[in-house]
Amino acid sequence: MGILSALAFGVALCLASALPATATSVGDKFSRAFQLGGKQIPLPGGEWVLAGHGTQPFHMAKLGAFGAIETAVLFMTQQDRIVAVLEVNSNTLQVNDGWGRTKACAEDSKQFLLVLRYKTGWETSCLFVQATKFDSGSSGPAAWEQAREFARSAKLSMPPMWLTAGFRVSDRQDLIDVRYHFSPALTLGGSAASFGTEADWSVAAVNADPLRRGAVQTVTSWASGFDAWVELGLRNQITATPGSMPEIAAFESSTPSIDVKLAELDGLYRDGQITWDAYVAQSKAATTQVPVYKEQTSLLSNSVEKNISFRSFGTFVDYGIAYIVTANTAVSWGIALTLNATDSVWFVLNDRYWDRHYAALNTHDSERIVDFTYIGGGLGS
Amino acid sequence: MIGVRRMIRPNRMSLRRCLDTAWLCAAAAVLAALAGIGIARADTNLAVGTQVEKLLQLDGKQVALPTGTWIVAADGANDWNDSSIGAFGYVRTVILFQVTNNQVGTILEVNTNVLPTTDGWGTASDCARTDLVLAVIRYRAGWDGSCYFVTHTLLSKESTTVWRNARNFAAAKGWRLSSVSLTAGFRAADRSDVLDVRYHFSPEARGIPGESIAQWQDSRWMSAKLDNDPPRYAFARAVSDWAVAYSTQVDAGLKNRPADRVIAMPQIAGGQTPEDLIARRLAELEILRQSGTVTAEEYAEQTKALHDYGNGSSSGLPDIGVITAVKAISYRVIVSISHIFVDYYWTGNYVAAGALEVLQITINSTKFYFHELAWAKYMGVPRGDSARTLDFKYIGSDV
Predict the structure, then answer these.
(1) What residues contact residue B294 under an 8 Å CB cut-off, 6+ apart?
(2) Is B34's Cβ below 8 Å from some Cβ in A?
């Protein structure tokens, strides 16, 4: 232990000089991406200002050494109004065995949209859209308290209700939990002031009003394409401005990630890097490819399929064995068919049990709930 | 900007072909809407002769380079293609040389995808071999994997177009290439990207006599022969120790994270201790504690977790053979009890029922095992993990 600690101290000295200094402070302005915990957080549209930055108390020993959960809050403003709030949580150190899901990505009656792109033992990607109620008086993590103070000192106003697009993307090492809260005024203009309560933004109320439904559709359309940017951010691969704000993005493309891939394939073909056949095949694949999503694959169907195939020849084998011993056709068929019925039950139960046992060994993280403290105490807190 | 011409058809796309593939034309039309959108992933190829130091950036990934100057010897498309991967563009191969006294001392061979995919890549077959100097699978699941290995490679074969170009470049420069190298290979892959990095170290450049052999098995670098060859053993050991430490840099590079330190080349003289990855993580925690980012309690909790559980991953795939055997045994125990009653019910004879029981146990257990094994190989381990093996075309031959 002593040697290890001494070694760690020595390495710490080296790392301290090697690690990039965190030079961000409240009031700094960012566009394209914001760096948090060694990951890029995509910033749509124009300029965002850092309003709050800190860590939040989060304990989960089974995650291992993740350091701390960093939280940042950024504002996008128009004159003296906050029109969008970005709330993001991310780990500071990489773990080795994955993170987990968020309750916000479980089906809920408040959601306008829920998309589970994939969820496996060590990774997850999901997005949701819902209404969130918070204003300058709402509580939240330390970064939000800082942001509230920033808003007060800068005399920035904010609406009481927001349309939130939330994304949770994690892999074996890292996690990004980001929520973009958009002011309904971005799409509804002055009429948004009429819809300032939670009841105004219930699913039923929204469905009954074309105006609010349009506003929600604008955000859901944007969110369903923006998840690709969040995933790129997890891998530090954002090199361009991640599209526009929802009210503008709706007029550009509903499938930006597919469009971009088609454009890139087009470029590769033009440059002679891929053949015509590869271009055609991959362009076709790009329009249809979605991540394989396996939510604890139904093992019953696999077991039944296997049982059918096993029984299809097993029954005749059973008959053959019985006939060798009894030399009686009727008795042999009786034995074979009885075994066919009873063994099928045992087969499926046995197969399901062991498959679930081994699947659990290999997917233990996918059921773990990992939630942080969010602005306004939204879902998952 | 994407011009009007692109709306109609790509340059090399004939009108007839466009008409034949209406969906493709529709897709091309969509490109017009992309004027303001762009996730630029595909980089321009590096010019041969370009000098690179410290970091090699390739299509949204990074390769941390050991100290010294590296020279781009070739950069192009790998001959490998697998349409089942989806729209990955192509696999790009970049070959860099580090040259000393007209001898190519180290060759760096990097293979990586140009565009991200959605459903993962796979592991390298070398990582699962048992006849290499070193082969370690750090983790491997359905959609991600990280592994490394050390072995020797026969470089005399022109196995890929890019390698042929690199050899021609070396020849034009008058640089000597070893025919057999000691190779440290690394594979890191996630759902989107793959990074396959192989360092081929020249024995001659390190004072170890070269070899001229026709078969991989004939080399003196075979792990079974190293114990009786101190110089080669020492270098293989140095490269193995180096590989352990470098593997984390490949994982970081896959996520476009820069190296957190200067990377030295493998050293025989003086040696280098294998890096203690736990110590590094402890050091990172210590920095966070000192900066106040984590509290003393959090620091204590997380350092305890590191000491208790280490830095490993729980992601080793269960062995299909073991799962199949476990299922076969448990199934046989259950049904054998059930069969006693069924057999006796139909025969009314203890001897006949006993004979049936014996036959059913022997014949049906065998039948069950192979049937289950066939399904397991078809479906993969529970959860549908494919964990497929995926290799590109590499320099030389290592089999």
Answers:
(1) A55, A67, A68, B285, B288, B302
(2) yes
Which residue, among B94, B139, B284, would best test binding to A if mutated, counting the most A CBs under 10 Å from its CB? B284
**Inter-chain CB proximity A96 and B305 less than 8 Å:** no
Q: Write the ipTM.
A: 0.72
Token pair in block for residue A45: 């549209």
**Mean pLDDT throughout A74-102?**
89
Distance, in Å, from the CA atom of B156 to the CA atom of B301, rounded to the nearest integer, reads: 53
Kindly state whether B302 is in contact with chain A, defined as any CB-CB distance less than 8 angstroms: yes
Compute the CA torsion angle B208, B214, B217, B223 (nearest 10 deg). 10
Report the amino acid identity of residue A287.
T
Q: What is the pLDDT of residue A309?
A: 86
Any domain includes A190: yes
Cross-chain Cβ contact B21/A174 below 8 Å: no
Interior angle at CA B160, CA B155 and CA B161, nearest 5: 125
The CA-based diameter of chain B, rounded to the nearest angstrom, is: 90
Per the structure, the count of domains in chain A is 2
Do A193 and A52 sit in the same domain of this protein?
A: yes
pTM over 0.80: no
How many Å apart are CA B85 and CA B75, to the nearest integer?
Answer: 22
Q: Which residue among A5, A276, A285 places its CB closest to the CB of B87?
A: A285
Confirm whether A82 is domain-assigned: yes
Distance CA B42, CA A271 (A): 11
CA A308 to chain B, closest CA, distance in angstroms equals 11
Element (H, E) at B5: helix B4-8
pLDDT-based confidence at A376, cuts 50/70/90? low
Please give the average per-residue pLDDT across A85-113, as a whole number. 85
Closest CA to A192 of A148, A156, A162: A162
- Nearest CB among B86, B301, B372 relative to A285 is that of B86
Q: Mapped to the 3 state alphabet, what secondary structure does B116-170 carry? A: CCCCCCCECHHHHCCCCCEEEEEEECCCCEEEEEEEEEECCCCCCHHHHHHHHHH
Beta carbons of B42 and A268 less than 8 Å apart: yes
A259 and A304 share one domain = no
Same domain, A225 and A342: no
Q: What is the pLDDT confidence band of residue B27, given thresholds at 50, 70 and 90?
A: very low
Domain limits for position A210: 24-263
Same domain for A243 and A312, yes or no, is no
CB contact under 8 Å between A261 and B115, yes or no, is yes
Cα–Cα distance list, B394 to A159, B95, B149, B366 (Å): 59, 10, 14, 41
Mean pLDDT of chain B: 80
Dihedral angle at the C-alpha atoms of A317, A322, A323, A327, nearest 10 degrees? 180
Which residue is it, tokens 């089999």?
A: B399
Q: Is A297 helix (H, G, I), strand (E, B) or coil?
A: coil
Are B294 and B282 contacting, i.e. CB atoms less than 8 angstroms apart?
no
> What does the pLDDT read at residue B276?
62
- How many Cβ contacts (< 8 angstroms) between chains A and B? 345
Q: Do A64 and B288 touch (CB under 8 A)?
A: no
Residue A15 in domain? no
CB contact under 8 A, B309 and A64: yes
Please tell me whether residues A187 and A326 are part of one structural domain.
Answer: no
Residue A287 corresponds to which tokens in the numbers above? 């329009």
Bridge partners of residue A179, in order along the sequence:
A87, A166
Q: Which residues, at least 6 apart from A40, have a Cβ–Cβ distance to it below 8 Å?
A: A33, A34, A232, A233, A236, A237, A238
pLDDT at B34 over 50: no
Q: Give residue-wise pLDDT tens across range B143-160.
A: 788 889 999 999 887 678
